[in-house]
Amino acid sequence: MNVLFVTLNLPYPPDRGPRIRDFFLIKEVARKYDVLLLSLLEDAAQLPYRPEMRRYCRVVEAVVAGRHLSTEVLRAAWQGWRAGRPAATWLFYDEEMAYKIQEMVAEHDVGIIQIEHSFLAPYVDAIPHGSRCKTVLDLHNIGFAQYRRMIGLDIGVGEKLGFVLKWWLMRGWEVRYAQRFDCCLAVSLGDAALLRAQNPRLSVAVIPNGVDSSLYQPLPEPGQGNTLLLIGTIRYPPNRDAVLWFADRILPLIARRVPDVQLLVVGHVPTEQVQRLARRGNVIVTGSVADVVPYYQAARVSVVPLRGGGGTRLKVLESMALGRPVVSTSIGCEGLDVVDGEHVLIADGPAEFAAAVIRLLEDGELRARMRAQAWQLVRRQYDWASIAGRLTDVYQSLADQAHAQL
User: Fold this and answer.
1) What is the DSSP string of 316-373?
2) Which domain holds residue 234?
3) In Å, how far are 27, 199, 317, 400 from 128, measured between CA atoms?
4) For tag attachment on the chain, is the N or C end more exposed, with fewer CB atoms within 10 Å?
5) Nearest-CA neighbor of 122 among 90, 144, 148?
6) Same domain, 119 and 168
7) Any bridge partners for residue 301, and if so which?
8) Is 239 found in the same domain as 198?
9) Are 202 and 232 contained in the same domain?
């Protein structure tokens, strides 16, 4: 059976959340089915990476999206407001992309088409009429829940109003469009419950995020130092908020007890406000890096002080796989089957979060116990190979339905 993945940007290099999920699902699904890939690229600089995806995909096609003028963005926002549809669903809809979907579905007798993210969902309309292929929408997060939380971040009034508008539009549109698919994928039971609460008729399967446990394995502890690691795409508002909140409200409390503590901030596109933190002396901001492993090697504890966002955090699974104990807020580890005090430490207030970090830095036995328990959980439940097995079971069920309808 041929499976067509439709993604925003090439899933390579797998160096940030959406690309990581897309890449590893494609890689593992390709062990059982013929995979075709069609990506809408925001930047033509991604084109040279196509050969990397041809290692797993029988066909790799890409369409470079045109750059949007400010007037087009405003027009999309106005269209979205009038139609009750998020602006991103207009901005990421490309006629050439729609034509490519029609062409690939017809030419390659596609059995399953999997579209990544709700804002690409309108491409379901490009599937040729009469095609028997089954449709899957992979929701990396639930947009209406994600934006609702982002309203509460410590951000400017303009940005806050933007999130209010996005939440209002996504609240009605997202689930309404999801019902046009044969199956929706959620990354956690909580996200699946949110979808079903909005529309009990939706067919929803839980396909969690994961980690490659053959690639990422526990690292030895650093020989010295008390370095903390905070990792993520910094331009994403919840990650930006997490860095600033931790640096301003939590790190000073830790430094009173652990004077040599140092915060290592690793991630794409750090804002100017985040870059200025490096002037404090105990904060290092790296920006984008080719390989995150050396930074995990330097760190003793991983911190995930998120107060907004959605989905589940690949950075938590990555930290546990690499043997770095995690201190997280409840939101930061939401949707993962972790137990406080066993796999991670969970704290939501600045004083509680600082105390949990200090506890880990000072207690080597606790770190060792959590490292071992977290690694076992990752291997048992969150390895990409076993997760992809659940996804191919979904595909087989859909294929059986298609066959029964003949």
Assistant:
1) HHHHHHTT--EEE-TTTTTTS---BTTTBEE--SHHHHHHHHHHHHH-HHHHHHHHHH
2) 226-381
3) 27, 26, 39, 21
4) C
5) 90
6) yes
7) 228
8) no
9) no
